[in-house]
Each structure stands twice: as C-alpha cells, then as structure tokens.
C-alpha cells in the first residue's frame, strides 16, 4: 500500500522527495444515535478502512491537492493565505477547512503542502470519510510542523472546521471516534464533558457488517438541522421545570415525569428518543462488558425502532435493510447508523450467517427499493498514524 501510494504521489507531483505516508480511519457508531448534540453518550469505533494520505512540505505557501478517488478532477491548487469558509461541496474543502481552523486557533502554518489522498471507505456510505480526511489533515500538520496538539484536540479542530468552514453543524462523535480510535475497542464517550472509556469489542464468532443503502442524503442535511432545532426547543421547555444542561442528563423516569412541559407532540417524540437512546447506550456498554451480546443486539434493534418511530430519520431504504436483517437467523442486532435518511446500517452477524445475510438482505433490498445495496464486513482498528 505504502509503495503504491508513494508511486502515485511521484507520478502526480514529479518526485517523492520529503513525502511521508499517513492514515486515518473511518468510523461506525454501534449505538447512541443523535445523542452527540444532546449531551448524551455515543459508542462508536474506528475501522481498519479509512483515508491514506501522502504529504510533503513545500518551500512556498502553495497548497496542492490530488485525490485518487476523484482522479478526474486532477491537481487542485490553492494557497495558505486564501483559505476562506466555503459551504460549497468539493472534497478539498475538508483539508482546507482544517488548515483554516488551525490558523483560526492561532497556529502558524509556515509552508504549504503537496497532498495526495486515497480512501478505501466506500464513498458516501456514512462511515465518515469527511471526518477521516479532517483528522488526517490535522495529524499531517501536527507531524510536519510540530504543533503540540493531542489526538483529542485533532477531533475538536476537525469539528470546529466542519462547523465553521463547511457549515455542517455536526456533533463531536465522528472526529472523536477517528482521532481516538483503538484496535478492538469502541469508545464510550460522554459528549457532555468529553469524558470517555474504551470498551473491548470482543466479537467471538461474529462480525460487524455494514450495509450501505446507496441512497443519497441531500434532503437529510436540512432534516438533521431540523432535528437539532426540535431537540433544542424541547430542552428549553424542559429546563423550565427541571435543572438540566442537555437531554442526556435525564433518566427515562425523569423524562416521563416532566414531558408535559414539551408543548408539541412531535417535539416530545424527538426528545424521548434522545433521552431513551442515551440510556440504551449506557445499558449496551454494560451488556458488552458483561459479555451479554444478545442484550447488546436487542438494544441495537430498539435503537433502530426509536429512530424509525420517534425520531423519524430512517426511511424505506434503511428500514428495509434492518427489517430484512432481523428476519435472518444469526443476526444478533441490526440498526441504522449515522444521521440516517440514507447512509448505512450496522449489524452484528454470526460468522456462519454472513453469506446468507448479504444475499438475502441484498436481494430483498433490490426487489423493494429498486437498486442495490453494498455490504462490507469491517474490523475495529486504531486511530491516525504515520505509516
Ligand atoms: P454521519 O451522518 O454519520 O456523519 C451525523 C453527525 C454526527 C451525529 C450523527 C447522528 C455529521 C458530519 N455527523 O453522522 O455528529 O450527530 O449524525 O448520531 O453531521
Ligand atoms: Mg460526513
């Protein structure tokens, strides 16, 4: 892999002098969905697939970007002094955004860079290729320019850049999971104060399978912000009757006792999801610690039902993938993961059921939805590193 990447870098930029190879993973969230902007818990893990980058420092302030995934776009040039928040699409806005964010935070980036990226995260699959590129960029800057930033800082800078440069009001989960990734562990993160622990994910005789719906999100982005607004309003109403900072501070009992403060039925359902999902996440981590995989799977299923019925962010595509998965013997648990609306599902599947899972769910999906889903058997891996 390293040699192939360096060779490609040399072909694009003329030579490989001073070039180094880096990697940042993708991530999948096992449970705890739409809780990260509600002061709740999430339970994501980094994957062994991710973004590879080759980079070198230039002698001037020029920036050159090339992506092997979007090779047809050629080399894209820019300058360190020309970085301005840009809400338009275009993959270079992720690395540019992180450079801009470092500058905003007071770090001096003395020289420009030549960068080549090649990701093996399926594009738009919901495994956070964007956060992977953000963390990778931060890591590259840290390595080349000696910035004293922790991996947690890289996550925060990535989120800051996505919020303020790309205009996506995301929570901290994606960047945190990627920057703090640890092989064979998932990260139990409390987004209220960023305290976290690692929980071993010992999947004996089973694997994590991602099913990508291939449904484009688009509209989802506005719905994402709509859900955030609904939760914020519900929180403000609840704060009139109970002393909390976020929906994640409530137990289910406290929520039930106070929910009449929420003056709109739909909003109350959104808040219910956030509260219950947070409690489910806490229970799921405990179940995993006790090696009660069946209970963990059950909680994954309940998470999906809540996202489908109360939070209403699933849609026919994700529901089909999950409901078909539930029918199969050997599926321990299955749910949508990420923002929803499109993107992918994550399932815990026993080894002997994986082939059946892929063929049966794939077949039913094509029949009901009209196009194909893609399947990936994934492994839990480490955070960003130099190769
Ligand atoms: P995805 O769509 O998987 O990147 C989004 C948010 C997360 C989190 C989840 C829902 C972005 C970039 N990320 O994840 O912070 O809120 O939805 O749990 O929007
Ligand atoms: Mg993203």
Written overview of the protein:
It is found in: Cytoplasm. Residues 7-56 form the Galactokinase N-terminal domain. α6 packs across α8 (265-289), α8 packs antiparallel against α9 (293-309) and α10 packs antiparallel against α11 (354-369). A hairpin with an 8-residue loop joins β4 (62-67) and β5 (76-79). The strands form 3 sheets. A 6-stranded mixed sheet has the order 5-4-6-3-1-13, sandwiched between helices. Strands 10-11-9-12 form a 4-stranded antiparallel sheet. A 3-stranded antiparallel sheet has the order 2-7-8, with helices on one face. It is 41% helix and 21% strand. The protein is an alpha+beta fold. It has helices at residues 2-13, 93-104, 129-145, 151-164, 173-179, 219-239, 252-258, 265-289, 293-309, 315-326, 354-369; strands at 20-29, 41-42, 44-57, 62-67, 76-79, 113-119, 185-190, 195-200, 206-212, 331-337, 344-350, 374-378, 385-386. The protein is globular and about 65 Å long. It has a domain at 2-201: Ribosomal Protein S5, domain 2, CATH 3.30.230. The protein binds 2-acetamido-2-deoxy-1-O-phosphono-alpha-D-galactopyranose (NG1) and magnesium ion (MG). 2-acetamido-2-deoxy-1-O-phosphono-alpha-D-galactopyranose is lined by residues 33-34, 36-37, 126, 128, 168, 170-171, 173-174, 338-339, 343. 2-acetamido-2-deoxy-1-O-phosphono-alpha-D-galactopyranose binds next to α5.
